[in-house]
Amino acid sequence: MTTPPEPNRRSELLELYLLAVEMADRVSARRGSANTFFLSVQTALVTLIGFGIPKLSESPWWVPTAVALAGITLSGAWWMQLRSYRDLNGAKFQVINSLEEKLSARIYTDEWDALRNTAAAGRRHRHYTELGTTERLVPMIFAAAHLILLTGTLVSGTLAV
Known about the structure:
Elements lengths: L6 H52 L3 H39 L6 H11 L13 H5 L1 H24 L1
């Protein structure tokens, strides 16, 4: 067991801990804002494609291909940004957990242990599924939707000829 730090050092550790927690919260807020942006743009793009399929199928092949590539590129950028936010917050929580070892309470460490080690009543799965895991599926689903819409547009354009 480590010996408690002297009062000045303890106050400094607490201030650093509070700063680290605040910065982790800000990263999470930025991630939420980025998700809102990408979800709005992707939804608008898929909606426009859905309403424009008759016209897109009459267009040259490269028009729906360019639209689909734009959507897939957006999906890739979104997914990479989510991965970056996850890595950044992961590093921040390593620092937070390290600081907690020097404090009298380990709030985030204990919370994480509780989530991972207890099964919620009435749940099918006994483990905690991180939000980031499901969050990173959404850009992949949009990329797949763009591919499906592209295929449908190209096939319907070919069949109409």
